[in-house]
Write a structure and sequence with these properties.
Blueprint lengths: L1 H28 L11 E13 L14 E12 L4 E15 L2 H4 L10 E18 L10 E23 L2 E8 L7 E11 L2 E8 L15 E8 L1
Antiparallel strand pairs: 1-2, 1-9, 2-3, 3-4, 4-5, 5-6, 5-7, 7-8, 8-9
Length: 227
């Protein structure tokens, strides 16, 4: 008799507990995630390679094709609406500008060398607005346009000169060269689709200090791949 009474008393508690469990499980399962390519928040890693272009520079002091930059970073994007997004990227970059004969004689020792390079590493922040051109897409980035700017802090600036004397390769380096500017800034625009991105940067700041009036790159065009 006592066992039957205990069963009758405990049975409602067990049933209520099971009902509560069944309610909670579907609610958590159906919850929409906030992070992802087509969600409110998204982070994408990027690796990129670019070339400095001759546009906007007359009587340039650098070589085309061997003046390059390299980027490794990540981009955070907030989806304010289907069409309008906000974001920012942070990058560790390296730039290498090869001077031509005109650029070599404007500073340092005033001589023409076999090869002269400006090397620098920068930490760059790029805030932007994003226009989403494919709002009715699945859970992937789709096609987009980015417009924004950038600010960079340069560290370990180096100028190097290379020559061949008597069959030997001689190199002269100015490490932490004070002739380099420490901060760079400019405008940025990009078009992308999913993991691929093509980006153009316009430098409003100068690369070097001093009265030598160097004609160094104003534009760079880079290809980025997401991961």
């Amino acid at each position: 008799m006592i066992r039957k009474l205990l069963i009758l008393l405990l049975l409602p508690t067990a049933v209520l507990g099971q009902t509560e469990k069944m309610h909670k499980t579907p609610r958590n399962y159906q919850k929409t995630p906030n992070w992802g390519p087509n969600r409110a928040h998204h982070v994408q890693g990027l690796i990129g390679f670019g070339l400095f272009m001759p546009f906007g520079v007359s009587a340039r002091d650098f070589k085309i094709g061997t003046s390059t930059d390299f980027h490794l970073g990540a981009v955070y994007r907030y989806r304010a609406s289907k069409f309008f997004n906000l974001g920012a990227g942070i990058y560790l970059s390296s730039s290498q500008i090869e001077l031509n004969d005109s650029g070599m004689v404007k500073g340092w020792d005033g001589e023409v060398h076999k090869k002269a390079q400006l090397l620098n590493y920068t930490l760059t922040l790029k805030p932007f607005i994003r226009l989403n051109l494919s709002p009715k897409r699945g859970d992937y980035l789709g096609t987009y346009l980015d417009f924004g700017g950038f600010g960079s802090w340069g560290f370990l600036p180096t100028t190097s000169f290379t020559d061949k004397v008597g069959g030997q390769k001689l190199m002269l380096r100015y490490i932490n060269d004070k002739q380099h500017e420490s901060f760079y800034y400019g405008a940025m625009a990009a078009v992308g689709r999913d993991w691929f991105r093509l980006e153009a940067n316009y430098y409003l700041s100068d690369w070097l200090k001093g009265p030598a009036n160097f004609n160094l790159p104003k534009y760079s065009v880079s290809v980025f791949f997401g991961f």
